[in-house]
From TrEMBL:
InterPro entries: P-loop_NTPase, Small_GTPase. One of its GO terms (molecular function) is GTPase activity. Coiled coil: none annotated. Keywords: Membrane, Transmembrane, Transmembrane helix. This is Uncharacterized protein. The lineage of its organism: Eukaryota, Fungi, Dikarya, Ascomycota, Pezizomycotina. The chain crosses the membrane at residues 12-35. It comes from the Eukaryota.
Length: 87
């Protein structure tokens, strides 16, 4: 399940939401990756890439920059999740 963690232009700390994000079996947490969308459109971005990257580092998540409209790094994000599931 893909969650958008934006509210009024600022990140909602994912650590506050993790209790509600369970894997499909109901045991444990689902794999998480933070995605910085629209990385090539500075003006349209609501959260800066650096903010997302720092938050991902603090929470020990993977972080990837993407541009969904042009499918840039979308497969890479999903492959990252699959790798996490296989661990």
């Amino acid at each position: 399940q893909v969650k958008e963690l934006l509210l009024s232009g600022s990140l909602i700390y994912p650590s506050l939401l993790l209790g509600a994000i369970l894997n499909s079996s109901g045991f444990g947490l689902a794999p998480v990756i933070l995605v910085g969308n629209k990385y090539n459109r500075v003006i349209e971005r609501e959260v800066f890439i650096k903010e997302g990257s720092i938050l991902a580092y603090k929470l020990e998540y993977n972080f990837i920059k993407a541009f969904a409209k042009n499918y840039i790094n979308i497969k890479k994000a999903f492959y990252n999740i699959i790798r996490q599931l296989r661990r």
